[in-house]
Design a protein that fits this description.
The protein has 98 residues and is mainly beta. It has one domain (2-92): Immunoglobulin-like. Helix content is 0%, strand content 54%. The protein has strands at residues 2-10, 16-25, 33-38, 44-46, 51-60, 72-79, 86-92. A seven-stranded antiparallel sheet has the order 3-5-1-7-6-2-4, with no helix packed on it.
């Protein structure tokens, strides 16, 4: 089990309610990557220009192909109720490598 902490920033001049959507690279690694705890499991409220630290706890299955040396996990926050406009950004404080 591994924990990494993301730093999430609301770049807007107002508070937002948003949902984080993950992206994996390489895509084939996603089936071997299991999140146990993640801020993406629920909606988040961020005040104007708020910076928050948010953890992700995960395991990587031992069956991960040997040619996969690095897994990149990133998130985009989408504001709820206003279409598909990105509401913020995330910056990992720790890189995930297998």
């Amino acid at each position: 089990m591994t924990e990494i902490v993301y730093e999430v920033t609301n770049n807007m001049n107002r508070s937002v309610e948003a949902q984080a959507i993950p992206s994996y690279a390489p895509k084939s690694a996603s089936e071997f990557f299991t999140k146990l705890e993640c801020f993406c499991f629920q909606q988040q409220t961020l005040a104007a220009h708020e910076v928050k630290k948010m953890p992700v706890v995960f395991v990587i299955d031992a069956g991960l192909p040997e040619d996969v040396k690095t897994i990149t996990l990133s998130y985009t926050f989408f504001e709820l109720g206003v279409g598909q406009q990105p509401a913020g950004s995330t910056t990992p404080k720790t890189k995930v490598a297998s």
